[in-house]
Write a structure and sequence with these properties.
Layout (H helix, E strand, L loop, with lengths): L5 H5 L5 H18 L5 H9 L3 E2 L35 E5 L5 E2 L1 H13 L4 E4 L5 E6 L4 H9 L17 E2 L14 H11 L14 E4 L14 E10 L2 E10 L11 E8 L3 H15 L10 H8 L1 H14 L5 H4 L27 H8 E3 L5 E6 L5 E3 H14 L4 E3 L5 E7 L3 H10 L14 E2 L13 H15 L5 H4 L3 E4 L13 E10 L2 E10 L4 H4 L4 E7 L3 H15 L6 H8 L1 H8 L32 H5 L4 H21 L3 H20 L10 H13 L12 H11 L7 H29 L5
Parallel strand pairs: 6-7, 7-8, 16-17, 17-18
Antiparallel strand pairs: 1-2, 2-5, 3-14, 4-5, 4-13, 8-9, 9-10, 11-12, 12-15, 14-15, 18-19, 19-20
Helix pairs in contact: 2-3, 2-5, 4-12, 6-7, 7-9, 8-9, 21-22, 21-25, 22-23, 22-25, 23-24, 24-25
C-alpha cells in the first residue's frame, strides 16, 4: 500500500455510514485499552460488530504446539499501556449466503493475514475467522466494507444474519425466488432504530418451498415462506409468516402468524414485530428474552393483535416498497450456455460425486454444485482458488449454506468433469454432500467458551467412519442428517436432526467424563418439521457405536418405506433406551483410559485426577442414585407423552425437576422430606440464593425452570407444553449433576 493505511487506500470504496461506524469502533477500542470505557459497555459494542471472545483450553497453542489450559478473559487487560489478551473470533454476515468472487478473494486474504488461515462457514450462512486480534478488526472491517460486506449486528442483541434457501431462484419446487426479499429485509433492518432495544437476538429466515429443509422457517423468530395467491384474477406474491420459533436449550416450534402477507407488507410487518418485541420482551432475565417466550406468555392471537396495531401506527417509510421495483437486481445469469453432459471422459470418482453433490436446476442444461466442506472449514488458499474456479464457470453465483457448505450455481453440465477435477486438485472434491456423512457441528470446545464436549472432534470421527462405508450403506440411511452441538444451546441444530447430540459431562469415580445426550425425533425436512428429545446420556467415546447401532436396527427392522422417525416412534422410547443402555456405561480408567479424554483432545487424564483411587471409586453417593432417579422420571415423561397423555407427561417432568432438587438438598439436609414446597424452598435458600447451583454457562436459567413450573403450574397442558417441560427437566437435571460435581470437587469427596 506504499505506506498508506487501509482507511486511506479504501476510503472512496467504503460506504459512508459503515466507514463512520468502523471509525467509532476503532476509537472505542482505544478508549478501552486505556481503561476509559467500561468493559460491560465495550463488550456489547464489540459483540454488535461481530467480535467474540474465544476459549483456549483445547490443548493447542495458536501455533499448533501442545499447551496447558489457557484462560481467556473477555476483551482487554485493565489499565493503560497493557498488552492485548489472546485473540478472539470475528463473525462476518453474508445475507442469504450470497458471495461474489471478489468478496471471496478478500475473505481469503483476511483469513491468511489476521486469522489462522481457516475460514469457517456457520449454520447461519456467516463466515467466522478465529484467533483474530482485536486491534486488527477495524482495518479488517474496512476491507470487508469495500466489497459490500459488514460485520455489524453479526452478534449481540440484534437482528442476526438473514438466511435464505441456497437454491432460491434455481429450485424446481419453489413458489418464487425469495432472494430479493431476503436482501431487502436484511438491508432495511440493519441498524434500524426500532431494532436496537432487544433483550436477546432476533433471527429471520426465508424459504421458497414448504416440504424441503430450505430456510428452516419453523425454527426462527420470523420465518417467511414464499406463497402465491390469486387476487382479482392476478397471481400475487406474498409470504406465509411464522413467528416464535427457536432452538436453544428448549426448542419452540414457530406458530403461524398469517397465511398470506402481501409482499408490500413484509418490511413494515417485520418492523412492527421488532417494536413489539423491544417494548414487551423480557430484558432482565436473558434466559426468557427471546420472542418465543413473549408469544408463549401472550398467546399467538394477542401477539398478532399487538403487532397489527403497531403496524397501523407506523409512520410511512418509502423503503417498505421501493425495492419492489428492482426485484430483478438479484436475478442471475449464466456465464456459459447450458449444455448436456454427453460423451465426455469422466475422471475417477466423478460418478459418486455427481450423485450426491450435483442438483439439476429448473433451468435446462444448468446445475448447482455443492462444494462439501468438512466441519464447515476451508483454508484461505482453498477459498482463493475457489474464487478463481468460480470466475471460470459462473457469474458471481456462489452461496453459503446452513449445512456449512458452499454451492456454485449455474454450472453448465458439460463443464462438470473439468470442474470436478479442479475442485479435487484443491482438496474440495469430496462427495456425500447433504448425506449422513455431511455432519453439522458447532465449534464446541475448540473455540467456544460455552462448549462442554468436543462437537467438532466427534463430528470428525463420525465423518471419517461413515465416509469409509458410505457407498455400502442402505439408501434409507444415506440421506439421514446428524447434527452435533458442544452444549445444550443447539448452535449445531441438534434438535432438528434425524440423529442429534449435545455435549454434557458426568463424573465417574471422581473423574469428569465427556458425554453427549442422544436426541431422536427431529426432522430436518418440512422446514425443520419437528424437534427431537433426549434419549440417553452416553460417553463421547461410545457415540460412534450409537450411530451404528441405531442405523443398523432401523435398516433391519423397518417396515416397507418406513421413515427413520416413524420407525423409532413405532418401537417406542422404552425400546430405544434399551438399545442404548449398555452404551451408557463407562469402564474404569484402568480398563480403558480413552473414555476419559475427548475426541481430538491431546490431553489425557492422569492418576492425579482419579481422586481416592479404585477403592474409593466404588462408593456411589446417595446423590448419584437420586439424580439418576430424576433422569429416569424425565424419560418416563417422554413415554407418557408418546402414549398420548400430555398432562401426565407434564406432571412427571415437573416431578423429575423436584426430585433432582431434592437430591441436591439432601447433600446438606438429609431430612428435607418429600413435600415439594419445602424441597423447593430449601433448594432456593441453600443453592439458588447462595449461587451454588448457578451453571457457569447458563447462570440461573435452569433453576428458574424449576421455580416457574412449580409456582405457575399449567392446569391443562398441551403436548407442546409437555414437550417443553421435558426439555427443561433434562436441562435442570444435567445442571444438577454439574452442581453436585462442583460441590464434590470443592469438598474432595467422591462424585459419580
Amino acid at each position: 500500500m506504499s505506506g498508506r493505511t487501509w482507511k486511506q487506500e479504501l476510503g472512496d470504496r467504503i460506504p459512508e455510514d459503515l466507514g463512520r461506524e468502523i471509525d467509532i469502533f476503532e476509537t472505542e477500542i482505544g478508549l478501552r485499552s486505556q481503561n476509559k470505557l467500561d468493559e460491560v459497555l465495550f463488550a456489547e459494542t464489540r459483540l454488535r460488530r461481530g467480535v467474540y471472545g474465544q476459549r483456549y483450553d483445547n490443548g493447542q497453542r495458536f501455533d499448533g504446539s501442545q499447551t496447558q489450559q489457557l484462560a481467556f478473559p473477555d476483551a482487554l487487560t485493565k489499565g493503560p499501556n497493557t498488552a492485548w489478551h489472546a485473540p478472539g473470533m470475528q463473525r462476518i454476515k453474508i445475507p442469504f449466503g450470497g458471495l461474489t468472487a471478489e468478496q471471496m478473494d478478500v475473505l481469503a486474504d483476511l483469513g491468511e493475514e489476521v486469522s489462522d488461515n481457516i475460514l469457517h462457514v456457520t449454520t447461519r450462512q456467516d463466515i467466522q475467522l478465529h484467533y483474530v486480534h482485536i486491534e486488527d478488526t477495524p482495518d479488517m472491517m474496512r476491507r470487508l466494507a469495500a466489497v459490500d460486506i459488514t460485520t455489524r449486528e453479526a452478534c449481540g442483541n440484534s437482528v442476526r444474519n438473514v438466511t435464505a434457501c441456497p437454491l432460491a431462484g434455481v429450485c424446481n419446487t419453489e413458489s418464487f425466488d425469495v432472494t430479493p426479499y431476503s436482501r431487502a429485509l436484511a438491508r432495511f433492518l440493519l441498524g434500524h432504530e426500532d431494532m436496537q432495544d432487544f433483550g436477546r437476538k432476533f433471527k429471520i429466515a426465508f424459504s421458497g418451498c414448504r416440504h424441503e429443509a430450505c430456510g428452516l422457517t419453523n425454527m426462527h423468530d420470523l420465518g417467511a415462506l414464499g406463497v402465491t395467491r390469486i387476487v382479482d384474477g392476478v397471481e400475487k406474491r406474498g409470504f406465509e409468516v411464522w413467528v416464535g420459533g427457536g432452538l436453544g436449550a428448549v426448542p419452540h416450534q414457530a406458530k403461524l402468524f398469517d397465511e398470506f402477507v402481501a409482499e408490500e407488507e413484509l418490511l413494515p410487518l417485520a418492523q412492527a414485530m421488532g417494536r413489539v418485541f423491544a417494548r414487551l420482551g423480557e430484558k432482565r432475565n436473558r434466559a426468557r428474552a427471546r420472542v418465543k417466550f413473549l408469544i408463549a406468555k401472550l398467546g399467538i392471537e394477542e401477539f398478532k393483535r399487538l403487532v397489527l396495531e403497531e403496524r397501523q401506527q407506523l409512520p410511512h417509510d418509502e423503503r417498505w416498497t421501493s425495492y419492489l421495483a428492482h426485484l430483478d437486481e438479484t436475478d442471475e445469469e449464466p456465464l456459459k450456455p447450458g449444455q448436456a453432459l454427453n460423451g465426455a471422459d469422466l475422471p475417477e470418482g466423478f460418478e459418486q460425486w455427481h450423485q450426491t453433490n450435483v442438483y439439476q436446476q429448473r433451468q435446462s442444461g444448468h446445475v448447482v454444485v455443492t462444494v462439501a466442506l468438512p466441519l464447515g472449514d476451508m483454508t484461505s488458499d482453498q477459498m482463493r482458488n475457489l474464487a478463481t474456479i468460480a470466475r471460470r464457470y459462473v457469474k458471481d453465483t456462489v452461496r453459503l449454506t446452513v449445512e456449512q457448505n458452499i454451492v456454485l450455481r449455474w454450472i453448465s453440465e458439460s463443464d462438470l468433469p473439468a470442474l470436478y477435477s479442479e475442485l479435487k486438485a484443491i482438496g474440495l472434491g469430496g462427495d456425500a454432500a447433504g448425506t449422513i456423512v455431511d455432519i453439522t457441528a458447532c465449534p464446541g470446545t475448540d473455540t467456544c467458551k460455552l462448549g462442554i464436549s468436543s462437537s467438532r472432534g466427534l463430528a470428525g470421527e463420525l465423518r471419517r467412519r461413515l465416509a469409509e462405508r458410505y457407498h455400502t450403506l442402505d439408501a434409507a440411511v444415506q440421506d439421514l442428517r446428524i447434527k452435533i452441538s458442544g452444549c445444550f444451546n443447539s448452535c449445531g441444530q441438534h434438535h432438528a436432526a434425524d440423529i442429534g447430540f449435545y455435549g454434557i459431562s458426568r463424573k465417574i469415580n471422581g473423574i469428569t467424563v465427556p458425554h453427549f445426550q442422544v436426541i431422536l425425533g427431529g426432522q430436518w425436512k418440512n422446514n425443520a418439521g419437528s424437534f427431537g428429545l433426549p434419549m440417553a446420556a452416553v460417553p463421547s467415546k461410545n457415540i460412534p457405536a450409537v450411530v451404528e447401532r441405531l442405523t443398523e436396527r432401523f435398516i433391519t427392522e423397518r417396515q416397507q418405506a418406513e421413515s427413520f422417525q416413524d420407525y423409532f416412534g413405532r418401537i417406542g422410547k422404552r425400546e430405544v433406551k434399551a438399545i442404548l443402555d449398555d452404551l451408557a456405561q463407562v469402564p474404569t480408567y484402568e480398563e480403558d483410559p480413552s473414555f476419559y479424554r475427548d475426541w481430538g483432545d491431546v490431553r489425557e487424564y492422569t492418576t492425579a485426577d482419579m481422586g481416592k483411587g479404585e477403592c474409593a471409586g466404588e462408593v456411589v453417593p446417595l446423590a448419584q442414585f437420586e439424580l439418576t432417579t430424576a433422569e429416569r422420571e424425565a424419560f418416563e415423561a417422554q413415554i407418557l407423552l408418546d402414549e398420548g397423555d400430555p398432562s401426565a407427561a407434564y406432571q412427571t417432568a415437573c416431578g423429575a425437576m423436584v426430585q433432582a432438587a431434592r437430591a441436591l438438598v439432601r447433600t446438606e439436609f438429609l431430612d428435607v422430606g418429600d413435600d415439594a414446597d419445602r424441597i423447593i424452598g430449601e433448594f432456593r435458600t441453600r443453592f439458588f440464593d447462595t449461587e451454588l447451583f448457578f451453571d457457569p454457562f447458563a447462570k440461573d436459567k435452569f433453576a428458574r425452570y424449576l421455580f416457574r413450573n412449580h409456582e405457575e403450574p399449567l392446569t391443562n397442558p398441551s403436548a407442546e407444553d409437555a414437550h417443553r417441560a421435558i426439555e427443561e427437566a433434562q436441562l435442570f437435571i444435567d445442571s444438577s449433576f454439574s452442581c453436585y460435581n462442583r460441590i464434590s470437587d470443592a469438598e474432595g469427596t467422591p462424585a459419580a
